Amino acid sequence: MKAQKTRSQEKIFHLLKTLARSLSAQDLYVELRRRKQTIGLATVYRSLEALKLQGVVQVRTLPSGESLYSLVQQDQHHLTCVHCGQSIPIDECPVHDLEERLEQSHHFKVYYHTLEFFGLCDRCHSLHREPLSN
């Protein structure tokens, strides 16, 4: 049985669906206010947490500590530069078979997963390449 969404959760769900991109809780709050939706920042955080627990919203935490929220539509995979913060989406996923095996062996319903690799993008790698020592 699915939990009934509150009005605040419905507003946030609709906004995430309309914008179709990941946003921080602060950005969601600002966008809701811009659209004349009266909702407090604490309510935005509570609603996002409830939607996450219902399995309809996923969260991705950046190296900076900022959390980005989006609707659960597909798994997310990224290459993220630890220097400039650039995040490059990737399509390949080596863990789908593992996910299915874990669901069966542990009787656990997986809503989504994230896979993120951290390193240096080509531009930052070129800028910070250290000369070879003799």
Automatic annotation (TrEMBL):
Superkingdom field: Bacteria
An example molecular function term from Gene Ontology annotations: transcription cis-regulatory region binding
Keyword NAD: no
Cofactor(s) annotated in UniProt: Mn(2+); Fe(2+); Zn(2+)
Residues at which Zn(2+) binds: C81, C84, C121, C124
Name by which UniProt lists this protein: Ferric uptake regulator, Fur family
Keywords assigned: DNA-binding, Iron, Metal-binding, Repressor, Transcription, Transcription regulation, Zinc
Keyword Transcription listed: yes
Positions with a binding annotation for Fe cation: H113
Organism annotation: Gloeothece verrucosa (strain PCC 7822)
PANTHER family noted in UniProt: FERRIC UPTAKE REGULATION PROTEIN, ZINC UPTAKE REGULATION PROTEIN
Pfam families, A to Z: FUR
